[in-house]
Amino acid sequence: MKEKGNRDITREPAIWSITTDRIVIAGILAAITICITLIPGIGFIPIPNITGNATIAHIPTVIGGIIGGPVVGFFSGLIFGIMSLLHATIPMFKDPLVSILPRIFIGLVAWGVFAALKRLNTDLAAIMAGFLGSATNTVLVLGMGLLRGYVPLALLPTVLPQAIAEAIISALLAEVIVRSYSIVQRRLVHAPETKNRDELPY
């Protein structure tokens, strides 16, 4: 039985509402996204292929969609897209339709996958949400790049190893972070109590 006041991330009422918790989560994840994209070699890792960079900067957006819902996922993806545009070193990512628009869907997909699978198993839901959220980034960015004429169709297979690596990293981190967040929210981690709950200082 849950204690009064505890929240359960597997049961989020009013998914499209803007709450204080979601504003805080969105702010924190936006700050993390900005920081890791500004530090060279972390958010965007230079590699010699058509994308120019591998990235882990989409992971806060994935996490935002999972723990904060679609509103947080949308906002986090928007911030990621804007930072991608500002960081752009190749023409493809200087186009907002490539650098910003696809990123809006990362958190929405992560939220949708997690919401669909969480009743089966929370860990599995987080892993799949992380994997498919990352895949959304790759597929939509390259798809838009292809439609806009920046990406030759013949070169798309060269991105596959990068895409798989990013998706696996995203899946693993999503599972770890969501599990940790869930534990904290449910207050499952605490020292043995020798006093009544009302007498404890926490």
Fold and architecture overview:
With 202 residues, the chain is mostly helical. The chain has one domain: Arp2/3 complex 21 kDa subunit ARPC3. Helices cover 58% and strands 3% of the residues. The chain has 7 helices and 2 strands; from the N terminus they run H-E-E-H-H-H-H-H-H. The protein has helices at 20-38, 59-68, 70-87, 96-99, 104-117, 122-147, 160-186; strands spanning 44-46, 53-55. Strands 1-2 form a two-stranded antiparallel ribbon. Helix 2 runs parallel beside helix 7 (160-186) and helix 5 (104-117) runs antiparallel to helix 6. The longest helix is centred in the last third of the chain and has 27 residues, at 160-186. The model is unreliable at 1-7 (pLDDT under 50). InterPro entries: ECF_trnsprt_substrate-spec.
Order of helices and strands: HEEHHHHHH
Give a short account of the largest sheet.
2 strands, antiparallel
Low-confidence stretches: 1-7
Shape annotation: globular
> What is the number of beta strands?
2
What is the correct CATH architecture?
A: Orthogonal Bundle
Q: Proportion of β residues? A: under 5%
Distance between the termini: 20 Å
CATH topology: Arp2/3 complex 21 kDa subunit ARPC3
Helix content: 55-70%
The total tally of domains equals 1
- Report the CATH C-level class: Mainly Alpha
Organism: Thermosporothrix sp. COM3
Transmembrane segments: 23-47, 59-88, 100-117, 124-147, 159-178
Keywords: Membrane, Transmembrane, Transmembrane helix
Protein name: ECF transporter S component
